[in-house]
Amino acid sequence: MQKKITRNRPEKYRKHNPILKGILICEHCGKNVTWQLQKGRMYGSCQRKLPECKAQSFIREDAVLELVQGKLGDLICPSPEVISWLTTLLRQDFELSVDNLEEAQKALDERIERIKRMDEVLYDDKLAGVISEERFRTKHESFTSEINDLLRQKGGISQTYKQKYMAGIAAIELSQDAKRLFTDENTSNDDKRIILTKLFAGISLKNNSVSVTYTKLTQAIARNSGLSKEILGYAK
């Protein structure tokens, strides 16, 4: 998993590349929290243009990182069976999507065939003198364009489902190693941000309080990991 995240590149200008750059959002103004180094610590704030923003104190980066690491720790499941179950569930969802895909592909094929038949009738009308050459050309070009659009849709649907499935499997695997990677000094800040964007739907600041929101998938992982820890008697 380490190879998937780190790229073995030097982290230049560390003080200008905070871990939470572009990650933490102020809920009052919707702007990114920016960071600056003061007395050896990183402090962040938004642009502080609204009264609600000005009422907020500067927030310490290490406090946010402690919260983030706790959330990453909540994803770690002591039972491999639960992770296997989640993977199986995702695979079943993918197989269901494939079934829906086949129905979508069939509907597109039927639509394409209907347009082709309409185009053939249009050609017969032209030969019979029912419509003009100009009218035929305009409609024929329209039919051809629509067929090409449908063919492009047909080619893209399967790829979308596959990408969604692979991203889900990768997120499950990453969730179990994310805390170790995130706290590893050898993991660059850029890659730490990738971890956060893959596993969290958002991190926000409001009234001096930071909220971390899981994605739909990682929320399920955290919930089932928590249940596993309770069943196995793990201390919180």
Total domain modules: 2
Succession of helices and strands? HEEEHEHHHHHEEH
- The low-pLDDT segments are 9-15
* Spatial strand order of the main sheet: 1-5-6
Counting helices, strands and paired strands, the structural category is mainly alpha
State the shape.
Answer: elongated
- pLDDT averaged over residues: 83
Distance between the termini: 26 Å
Characterize the largest beta sheet: strand count, sense, and whether it forms a barrel: 3 strands, mixed
Counted by DSSP, the helix tally is: 8
How many strand segments? 6
| Proportion of strand residues | 5-15%
Instruction: List the quaternary state of the chains.
Output: single chain
Q: What fraction, in percent, of the residue positions are helical?
A: 55-70%
Gyration radius from CA atoms, angstroms = 27 Å
Overview of the structural elements:
This protein has 236 residues and is mainly alpha-helical. It has 2 domains: 2-6 and 13-77 and 178-232, no CATH class; 81-174. 62% of the residues lie in helices and 12% in strands. The protein has helices at residues 2-5, 51-54, 61-74, 80-127, 133-175, 178-183, 189-199, 216-232; strands at 24-26, 34-38, 41-45, 59-60, 200-206, 209-214. The protein has a 3-stranded mixed β-sheet. Strand 2 (34-38) and strand 3 form a beta hairpin. Helix 4 (80-127) packs antiparallel against helix 5 (133-175). The longest helix is centred in the middle third of the chain and has 48 residues, at 80-127. It starts with a helix and ends with a helix.
